[in-house]
Design brief:
The chain is 63% helix and 0% strand. The chain has one domain (10-78). It is globular, with a radius of gyration of 15 Å. With 91 residues, it is an all-alpha fold.
Length: 91
């Protein structure tokens, strides 16, 4: 990071999380997948927003809900009754 670089503020994180969540929902609606990096970024952004007491926009909450549901479906499909699938973060 250069000496001139400024840390991201809550508004920046909110904007980035919203744009990424919108892009992920669009990809999902057209049958495209998204990368592990995109998953990681949207989850980390959501965690930061929680830590800053910034409410999630509806689109961010929607993609997090989808990710949790997909995780639970994968766990069920694997048939591991002993595996506990839980959300990475809460809202």
């Amino acid at each position: 990071m250069s000496d001139d670089a400024q840390p991201l503020g809550a508004g920046d994180i909110l904007s980035l999380a919203t744009k990424l969540a919108e892009r992920m929902l669009q990809a999902r609606s057209t049958g495209r997948t998204f990368s592990v990096d995109e998953l990681d970024v949207v989850v980390k952004a959501a965690e930061l927003l929680l830590a800053l007491s910034v409410p999630w926009p509806a689109v961010v909450a929607e993609i997090i809900d989808i990710l949790v549901a997909d995780s639970e479906a994968i766990g069920a499909a694997l048939g591991n009754a002993n595996a506990e699938v839980r959300p990475v973060i809460g809202n």
